[in-house]
Amino acid sequence: MRYEAPKTTKEAATFLKKEKGDAFILAGGTDLLVKMKLGISAPDLVVDIKKIPAMNAINHNASGSKIGAAVSGAELGEHKGLSKSWPGVVEATNLIGSDQVQSRATMVGNLCNASPAADSVPAMIAAGAKAIVVGSTKRRTVPVEKVVTGPGQTSLADDEVIEAITLPKRGKRAGDAYLRFIPRTEMDIAVVSAGVNLTLERGVVKTARICLGAVAPTAILVPAAAKAIIGTKLDDEALDKLAAACSAACNPIDDKRGTIEYRVRVAGVLAKRAAKIAFQRAGGA
Amino acid sequence: MKISLSPNLQAAADGEESISIVAATIGELLSKLATQYPNMSQHLDAGIAVAIDGQIYRDDWGKKIPTDAEIYLLPRIQGG
Amino acid sequence: MGNDTSYTDQKFEQVGRRVKRPDGVDKVTGRAKYGADAYAPGQLVGLILRSPHAHARIKKIDTSKAEKLAGVKAVVTYDDLPDLTGGNRGMMDILENCMARGRALYDGHAVAAVAAVDKTIAKRALKLIKVTYEKLPHVTDVDEAMEADAPVVQDFVFTSGVEPKPTKPSNVSGISQFGHGDVDAGFAEADVIVEKSYKTEQTHQGYIEPHACLANMSSDGSGELWVTTQGHFVFRNVCSTLLGIDIAKLKVTASEIGGGFGGKTHVWMEPVALVLSRKANRPVKLVMTRDEVFKASGPTCSTSIDVKIGAKKDGTITAASANLRYQNGAFPANWGMIGAMTAYACYDLKNVKTVGYDVLVNRPKVAAYRAPSAPMAAFGVESTMDLMAGKLGMDPVEFRIKNAAKEGTRASYGPVYGPIGIGPTLEAVKKHPHMRAKLKKNQGRGMACGFWFNFGGQTCTDLNIGVDGTVSLTVGTIDVGGSRASLSLIAAEELGIDYEQVKASVADTASLGHNDMTEGSRGTFSSGMATIFAARNAVEVMKGRAAKMWDIPVEDVVWENGGAKATGKAHSNLPPLTLKEIAAKSPQTGGPIAGHNETVADNAGVSFASHICDVEVDPETGSTRVIRYTVVQDAGKAIHPDYVEGQFQGGAAQGIGWALNEEYIYGKDGTLQNPGFLDYRIPVCSDLPFIDTEILEIPNPNHPYGVRGVGETSIVPPLAAIGNAVSNAVGVRLNHIPMSPPRILKALDEQAGG
Amino acid sequence: MSSVLVSTTINGDPVEFACPPEETLLDSLRDRVGLTGVKEGCGTGDCGSCSVTLDGRLMCSCLVLSAEVEGKQVGTVEGMVQNGQLHPLQESFIDNAALQCGICTPGFLVAANALLARNANPTETEIRYALAGNLCRCTGYDKIVRAVQVASKEMRKKSKKTKKK
């Protein structure tokens, strides 16, 4: 195995392009090193992106936010402006693992690991986040929901690296929230999760995006669930419809972490609870 | 003296709930048990514990058995 | 022998103090050396190749490519571990578990091993070993394994305990029955009968330190083994037998142990390390990875249990029975038998019958786990006790008090009890403020009782007094949870000196006589007993020395307050001699002063506990949180109360994990799906509340200080206590452990639907 | 296989070692630097026994490649003793019987120290969540949480005293 730590994103993409064997990006390493330990991955090349300045920056201003791919969960959580604008996204990222893992784990790593149960991903998708993708020859911007195509699979080309995640401009009457279910209080992978992002106008939900995790091969946006609450004050009837739409959208599997039955049922419960939090954060009564 | 047997040892003693052996010590008791009940050998190999008035002894041939004591034989067990 | 072990009521100066442990500084600074912390010049890295199949015939193992790889110094298979057991099937099982012999019996069963100059080469060598398997049908569930058409795990196993002797091999290795009276008559007498079946899943001890050793065999046939173990003397004897080494020529040194809970009472890979070292003629370090620990060490049984209790309207139990089916992994054992012995041990029953079934499956060889077999049986019995109390309209504590065993009760496993603590723990629960604390919505309170035998066993202890009057106490029982502190307190108590003047350490196998494992809660009990007598032995020596110093008859010397005193008017002018003064003159009065004791410390005194638990259940997700927990247990006498509390709390925490989240999950292919701490979910710090403790001291009549073992019983009640609390919180009775959120939600749904 | 040469600072001391590029910081610390206070309980970031600080941040050394620590500051349990004095957390763990087998203790100490560095007066809940990445199987965490509470109080008292001076 070779280890490289380039100084620019372009350089990183070029390393990837040139490598004939298995090449992996190393950001926080909290997935990659586990796979290496368990013998699931045996990289020929590891490209450490933490020495790339653009990857380490958080830009947050009135026109939106940009979070570098190497920014750790802990750094994200310490950013007051982001935590105020996008509490759901920040909390979701901060739920990944222990304090030890938070010092290392990144949103982009969480995304590119392409687990259906990734915590930050439903929150990012609900928030309308986009990924800035840099290849050896060109750059492009992709909605986060288009990055993961299936368990362990992404739409990125072999020479492409995500440099940063952008979040849209945040208005006043807006709120987001993310909840996941885990059997313990910490250290577990989500059994099922829900991210909700909404805006209000005169106390009524104007726009909404609802995304579920761990209930399908990828995180899924549920437009029907959004529709169920748009135009409402999030009354019980709307919430029940939201929950039903979420449960209906699920296509989960039975595995060591949960059953189909359980995931379908609890997806609705969590979406309801997350919607209530997002509504409150948006100033809804 | 009367020696009570735990149910799983009874088969080796022709199904009797208790047997009669006179022994001054645990060692004597176990050796007489082996000669008088050859089928006990598998249990003796696995280990037999001797309860004297409710106190369980696992390995102690020299332990004296009071004549009026309640003697109960049971399988030997492991701990964690 | 001949030491009087009877309890005598006495005032303690040292015993009962919460002193600093002697290994504390080493352990907080990182200086303490555990199994993986030893290094030898020229050491090789050992790795084991394991079966990926639940059950397979091994047709061929081709090691030729691995042997040729540069840097590989030894490759071994079962050919390198010939059968030297002389027909001892139990030893053969251990050997076969260390290395498969023609058949892989479970996912993770060792099939070959390598030793190489570094980890990278060793890993590459493992990949070069080609094993040709023929997959065989497998079975991992205990009930399925008992079915007539189940795949037979071991063809040498015929069910014992049945007449006539079976002619066909079976997965049921043994059937054991316990009890007394006539249960049929008892049930006929009952006003109310409750019957229920339960299942518990397999759990692992989950010690944080993986198995690790450093083996160093010499070409002269002698060897050394550094290893993390609960019993280095037993490891020495087992490894010597399996490998044909003279016992005296294998020196085993126990490292600090990073948790055991029964899981380090067996050898798993130590013989393989020794064989690799012998073949390579170099030291070999072998350390399990976490997934190897889960797959190839010894977890506890999964079980399936039927319980039936009958009672009169006034709450008197007229009969109780249970069938207990315990899965022992791929090798025969008697864990079901032990479950059958413990099930009703808390109660005074006229008619009781339990039948234990020991069953083989394609899972790893089961080892002891803290009060082995008792928690599952208690889950069934204590859950049913609550159901019965509910049917009778009685308070569950009162119902248990009414039926509790006491001195003179015939135990359900046979003998008659001496003084015991079940009644007092129940009375303490009844009085405890926890029982009266208010509960909120979706919260519930449960309680349950537990029992464990406790053991003593072979023990050997040395006590040497230095010329400066300080004392080295050398014991042979592994210190798992702070016993060096407790034993030093005992030595100080006997000698009449301060704790600080005693330093306890654990000897290697070349330096002390045989000691049994630290198991069965025996560490402080049995080494404590040997320490008392070794100290009394040393006191006798010192009295003799004092007599010499004074030039008076030894009969005129007594030992008081840490020194010798001359008695009688003739010597009233002689000021007492302190231990220190006697020690200082020891070179001139006969040489070193030592005390010694070897004993079989039987009679550890049975132990009982009652636990109270509050939970909160989220009815929409099935999530359960333990919000308050209290342990009440009889310790006989708490030598070092901090570490007694620590045992109570640690056992309760393990029980809580077992009750709620921990389980081995096998796929349809018979492979383990969750061999890691991510998905084998032991409780984390934020999962638990503070665990309150109440130590009761009902002296063990057969220990000079009244000590009972305290290490194990605390894991017995939690499963049922939590089950009872969940039932009281949301009205559903879970009969399947762990009570994971999907199981609870399903039960809630079924309740709402039906 | 070509090794990487790593120059780093460990517990304040300059250290250089060569290792394979795939080697974790955990393995290098134990097998090359001789700091065996850093323990491997799982190797997958689930138990926290290998906790270290890297430029002041708490992490699992099993999830860090040694090549990554070039030019950085590594802190381990061995660095907690200052001028021959035990750290208040170390004292408190001994005094409050917060360890039984002790294998998890170095990781807990490093994690608790990182917690108190950013939050001098944590609540019980904050302590429990901050230590959730460290598994202990012996204690049920009771005495560990109490020991951290005691140490935090002691450390606040001490820092008040030094401020007054």
Q: Look up the CATH topology of one domain in chain A.
A: Enolase-like, domain 1
The CATH architecture term of one domain in chain A is 2-Layer Sandwich
Radius of gyration of chain A: 19 Å
Q: What percent strand of chain A?
A: 25-35%
The main β sheet of chain B shows up as:
5 strands, mixed
Rounded Rg of chain B: 11 Å
Protein structure class of chain B = alpha+beta
Task: Provide the helix percentage of chain B.
Answer: 25-40%
Order of helices and strands of chain A: EHEHEEEHHHHHHEEEEEEEEEHHH
Strand content of chain B: 25-35%
CATH superfamily of one domain in chain A: CO dehydrogenase flavoprotein, C-terminal domain
Architecture overview:
The complex is a heterotetramer of chains A (285), B (80), C (754) and D (165). Chain A is an alpha+beta fold. Chain A has a domain at 174-281: CO dehydrogenase flavoprotein, C-terminal domain (Enolase-like, domain 1), CATH 3.30.390.50. Chain A contains 11 helices and 14 strands. Chain A has a 5-stranded antiparallel β-sheet with strand order 4-5-10-6-7. Chain A has a 4-stranded antiparallel β-sheet with strand order 11-12-13-14, sandwiched between helices. In chain A, α5 runs antiparallel to α8 (120-127) and α10 (236-249) packs across α11. Chain A starts with a strand and ends with a helix. Chain B is α+β, with helices and mostly antiparallel strands and 80 residues long. Chain B has a single domain (2-75), classed as Beta-grasp domain (Ubiquitin-like (UB roll), Roll). Chain B is 26% helix and 25% strand. Chain B has a 5-stranded mixed β-sheet with strand order 2-1-5-3-4. Chain B starts with a strand and ends in a 5-residue tail after the last strand. The model of chain B has no long low-confidence stretch (mean pLDDT 87). By secondary structure, chain C is of the alpha+beta class. Helix content of chain C is 28%, strand content 24%. The N and C termini of chain C lie far apart (66 Å). Chain D is α+β, with helices and mostly antiparallel strands and 165 residues long. Chain D is 36% helix and 15% strand. Chain D has 5 helices and 5 strands; from the N terminus they run ββαβββαααα. Chain D has helices at 25-32, 88-95, 105-118, 124-130, 142-164, and strands at residues 4-10, 13-19, 51-54, 57-60, 73-75. A 5-stranded mixed β-sheet of chain D has the order 2-1-5-3-4, sandwiched between helices. In chain D, α2 packs across α5. Chain D is globular. The termini of chain D are far apart. Chains in contact: A-C, A-D, B-C, C-D. The interface between C and D is large, with 57 and 61 residues.
